[in-house]
Design goal:
single chain; alpha/beta; five-stranded mixed beta sheet; 33% helix; 152 residues; two-stranded antiparallel sheet
């Protein structure tokens, strides 16, 4: 895939994000880190302090029906993905970005899509459902240069 000069690449999962900008050429991309952020997100079991809540059942007998158990780990990941979308939204509305490529873990990509502003949507040239937050910028650039646009 061609990565035009000045294209912004968001690489994200539920706890880490990188904003990379191509300062190289379309044929020889050079991704520089423009912004990075990581948040701790311990497993759900480490975030809970209480047992699952209960509510009266339809028959009125206590304890026969339970409220759904909250997954705090997933909630934290969803909030972080929304935060990543908000970063893109702010930059798009301030006209600080042109073309955008998004690489995100599949669940994160779904949350991102729900939170994009129209300005971001109009600038996205490719979305890739893949977790690459642990990859080096060189490896990400190499991957993007090899991937076919139709598969992105």
């Amino acid at each position: 895939m061609r990565i035009d000069t000045d294209t912004l690449v968001l690489v994200a999962d539920g706890r880490k994000l990188l904003l990379l900008r191509n300062v190289g050429t379309p044929l020889i991309p050079d991704l520089n880190v423009e912004y990075g952020e990581e948040q701790p997100n311990p497993p759900d079991r480490d975030q809970k302090s209480d047992a699952q809540g209960q509510r009266p059942s339809a028959s009125g007998l206590r304890g026969q029906s339970s409220a759904g158990e909250t997954d705090y780990h997933q909630q934290t990941e969803d909030r972080f993905a929304k935060h990543a979308a908000d970063l893109l939204n702010q930059r798009a509305l301030a006209n600080q970005i042109g073309r955008v490529i998004v690489i995100a873990a599949p669940a994160t990509l779904g949350t991102l899509r729900q939170n994009y502003h129209g300005e971001v949507k109009s600038r996205i040239v490719a979305e890739i459902a893949k977790d690459m937050t642990g990859y080096s910028t060189d490896r990400i650039a190499q991957y993007l240069a090899q991937v076919e646009p139709a598969t992105a």
